Amino acid sequence: MTYLGLDACKAGWVVAVVSDERWIDAFVATDIAAAETRGIDEFAAACMVVDIPIGIPDTGTRLADTLARRFIKPRGSSVFPTPVRAALLADTYADAREASVAASGKSLSAQAYAIRERILDADGYAGRARIPLVEGHPEVSFRAMAGSGIPHAKKTFAGMTLRHQLLQAEGIDVPMELEGRLGGASADDLLDAAAMAWTARRVARGDADRFPPLHLAERFSDDVDSAIWF
Questions:
Q1: Which superkingdom heads the taxonomic lineage of this protein's source (predicted)?
Q2: Residues near 117 by beta carbon (within 8 Å), at least 6 away in sequence
């Protein structure tokens, strides 16, 4: 079987493809639907995990984000609070900040607002995907592979080297020279996508963990299971 891991990049999504035994390939897709179509048609993919929130809160914060931040210390800032739905639907950043304060008591960053279309795309597509689609987070997955907190940021040489080694230990030997032909995707994007593919493999096998655990599962008005899998 083969599995897809998706991470956002300048050109859309970089998609890593792995099998039960090894690394297969990577490509860039404009949106999640295109990634799924190519993944199924070309690689017979059975599951995909995306590094973007799925399950958007209407008020307050998600338990998934809170638990994930604790788990990945000292890299906790890598998990940003998922914006409330009203903020994501706002036409301007100023309106989004106002809506966020009204619904959650907190503002939101320009970075979070800038990826609102990606968040809404993933959240809306989850219910109509042809293969299982769930949320992951690369730093959560790498932390799970390592068995302890990761000291190096992902964009540093030490950080990329460590993450590459962690994937190799899981049978996923990412050919870093691929960065040159994946227009719009950087080396850390490729490693993050590979971590999401590792997670997709675990989800399909029934080996994955999740935040929050099933007995604390959260659903909001979109009626989507809000969880970070790893």
A1: Bacteria
A2: none
| Cβ neighbours, 10 Å, residue 42 | 13
What's the Cα-to-Cα distance from 28 to each of 14, 17, 32, 132, 154, rounded to whole Å? 4, 11, 10, 20, 20
Q: Helix, strand or coil for residue 156?
A: coil
Tens of pLDDT along 8-44?
998 899 999 999 999 999 999 999 999 999 999 999 9
Q: What is the pLDDT averaged over residues 47-71?
A: 97
β-bridge pairing 2-9 and 12-19: antiparallel
Q: How is 143-207 classified by DSSP, letter by letter?
A: HHHHSS---S-TTSHHHHHHHHHHHHHTT----GGGGGGSTT--HHHHHHHHHHHHHHHHHHHT-
Strands 133-136 and 45-50: parallel
Residue 78's identity, in one-letter code, is S
CATH of 2-54+125-211, one of 3.90.280.10, 3.30.360.10, 3.30.420.10, 3.40.50.2300: 3.30.420.10
